[in-house]
Amino acid sequence: MKSFEAVFGGVPAAIGHAPGRVNLLGEHTDYNDGFVLPIAIPQQTHVAIRRSASATFTLYAAALDCMATFTHDAPPSARFATYVYGCIAEARAAGFEIPPLDMHLSSNVPMGVGLSSSAALEVATLRALRTLLNLPLDAVLLAQLAQRAEVQHAGVRCGLMDQMAASLANTKQALFLDTRTLERRLMPLPPESVVLVLDSGITRSLATSAFNQRRAECEEAAQRLGVRALRDIGEGDLSTVEALDDPLRRRARHVVTENARVLRAVQCSNPKDFGLLMNASHASLRDDFEVSVPALDRLVALLQARPEIYGARLTGAGFGGACVALCKSSALERVAENVLNQYAQEGHSGAVLVPPA
Q: Using only C-alpha atoms, what is the Rg of the chain?
């Protein structure tokens, strides 16, 4: 893996970094103005930069051993570079002058499994720009620019959760976030519990197109219900949701009940009760939002069957990728090994994505 010095000769003038995240509860609620509960993971993305002597941006991705070049008026063709270009474009749209740069990207955030490697890249890029150019970007504005980069330039109509988590979360506390008002607070995990994240081994090949479809369905459901967003429908109003035709009825029902689960979790100090909310979330994502796949369901079921696991669910957009479990602190490594062995015996290939602290 080539360093900045090996690629460009000399040292960077600024470095930005940001973590990936795992979402404990609140899946597909952020773009419905709802509530979410992510937590940062230890793995980080690093973006090292300096001013370029040329008129061109040069970006090197160490993990891919791939170089991309672009200008303000000529976007890159490489997918990984699109996120960085988007950050630069949105910073310029916000009124900041961004000169050509030499840029080096390195990351150990797992990609394509639902842990927000793209948001980590965006936030790390903007943090590097902030340091180099002394930009007046607070954590929230930085996250908002990062989100716009993904929506406008990468074509993923994501909500704000991933970028806010990368910008504001830590690995010890969950971040409760109201994505409409941006009210937020950090809260501890339930006592005697830790987070376990496993990869199902299933590539999320349909994630972008299906994600955008789900968002469009939610927007149509809100329009038919006469509300600004599905966030405005409470659990007590589920009878109005049940009057919708499928699949809008099921999509809206998931969002309404998922928001309620997040709000319950924030008040929950018992890991067993928290785990039951996670289990219910997975069932809703599987049956009402239809974003799971059989192998992911099986891995979640194996976790849920273990007495040391309080609860488990898919995390991220779905259609493969990762699942998250709340586990007894003393049992994490043993449970992970046993569950993955059983999963492998059934013909699958899983892995631990977030190592024990």
A: 20
